[in-house]
Amino acid sequence: MPYPSPPRFPSGPRRRTLLASAAGVALLAGCTAGPDSGGDGPSATARARARAAGDSEALLARYDAVLAAFPGLAERLRPLRTEVAAHVAAFADGTTPAATPSGSASPSPTASSTPVPATEKDALASLAAAERTLADQRARALLDLPGEPARLLASAAAAGAAHAYLLTTGGPK
Predict the structure, then answer these.
(1) Which of 11, 44, 119, 141 is the residue whose CA sits 20 to 30 A from 168?
(2) String of b and e for 110-134 (b: at least 16 CB within 10 Å)?
(3) Could you tell me where the DSSP H helices lie in 12-170?
(4) pLDDT of residue 8
(5) R_g (Cα) of the chain, nearest Å
(6) Terminus-to-terminus CA distance in the chain, angstroms?
(7) Where do the structural domains in the chain lie, given as residue ranges?
(8) Which of 26-30, 76-80, 130-134 has the lowest mean pLDDT?
(9) How much is the pLDDT for 115?
(10) How far apart are alpha carbons 83 and 161 in whole angstroms?
(11) Are 162 and 154 in contact (CB under 8 A)?
């Protein structure tokens, strides 16, 4: 008598994996402490915040370009875009991201200069790849930051990893 096949699970990270990764990143961020650079110019923390703000602005422009090209994706992308806009504000202002109503964020000015793939599927895959790349970059960068800036970067990295997952699995609709 043949044995039944084991159930097939979707490929890619599972919710537990994403949560465990985010928790690990947060623990590392909490353990990281060190003084800012004492030389001339902006501190390492200020440079990291400025870089993170610029990266979030570029990602926001990608979302806006996809939304302009594919208005039918608005309901699905609006919550993710709103979080990215909050990250821009948090890194630029030095505050933690605040929840904003989903329609309150205005499109970024550079949205028209960002290339958009020809299909919705490819556009979503492109956004997911951008989110994943930025999340990985942030996870590496937070190790060089002290306390609160590292926690903020870790939070944004975890959010980016979750966004990438949602963009590739069908996410909120």
Answers:
(1) 141
(2) ebeebebbeeeeebbebbbebbbeb
(3) 15-31, 44-69, 74-93, 120-141, 147-169
(4) 55
(5) 18
(6) 44
(7) 43-169
(8) 26-30
(9) 84
(10) 13
(11) no
